[in-house]
């Protein structure tokens, strides 16, 4: 399990990003597929399939309607970065129903323990999200939600579920989680020993599995990987299907040091990955993980791509109808003129002589530039320029380096931050067991 798979109060704000939270339990099941002593040849008696149901249910007496499911689904579809096929939408409906059931159990548990979240608290969070996150008035937010097929009530119910669950964890779980100073020191020593080694920013989609449903979960994970390989949005699929709390942020684990990956299989896989690479499904205790390498850097070392540059962009357009031969002549003339420039001090005057345009750009982060330009710019000294680049349609240009502020070396997490990471991990594990117990004791009727 990864250290960032945690339950945090701040998830409420991310949930207003119109994505579905997936608060599924990550059970630590084994790999024994015959733990239930099932026969090898299964023969169904009767035509009824208990898994084929309409998307409605009654949870301890609380009714979940098809409208509830469709309005929550509309929030997800509105936030998705690409079209979702009807087949995927049907899978998503089943996931939404499971989420709504968990949400109902969490609200009911908070009410039973006299920790009810009031309507005023929900309205306060909803109003803040509408005005601060979406830059809409309350009336505009209502109009928007209605236009996409959802409603304020659907989003408010999601907010109430999150507030209720966090309140339960704060009282019934967090006070009973203890971390010793020895554990923190041990982790700190391991992190220090890893200084200078690779650090990864990973995206994660986690699907929980038990011995009974492991084959089906693996098949679902493979389908997700196929969709991602065809160009599907990792962030979108993580929000829809991941059963880790990182689903709320599109599966982003942030910058992870290998010493913080508390699973040897995932650690070995991540070590071999390159930026932009997708790997999975990976079988781990409790389920399957799909990993996406977002970026990579050196632990405890400054990343050169975080340098801030002062640049002059010197450019010249080609007149309409310019031939390739004529363009080559102008490129040669432009290149020679740039080579004659004695740093940024003479660039403006020399550019004017050939009819070129100069635009000053200050405090530009290297990583914000196209990847093809990052390496050439990092190799320049002040006053030097990149090789010319462009096209007949866009003209020709160079970037001249006029100044560079290198990034400071990061100190890394301190003692308190490491303590919080370990505490969050343990809170998450207990939260999963808590939710599993609520599911086990629930009376659920499907229509």
TrEMBL record:
**Segments forming domain PpiC:** 197-295
Q: Where are the transmembrane segments?
A: none
The answer to keyword Nucleotidyltransferase applying to this record is no
Signal sequence interval, chain numbering: 1-25
Q: Which Pfam families match?
A: Rotamase, SurA_N
Keyword match Metal-binding:
no
A molecular function annotated in GO for this UniProt entry is: peptidyl-prolyl cis-trans isomerase activity
**Name the record gives this protein:** Parvulin-like PPIase
Please tell me the species this chain comes from. Altericroceibacterium endophyticum
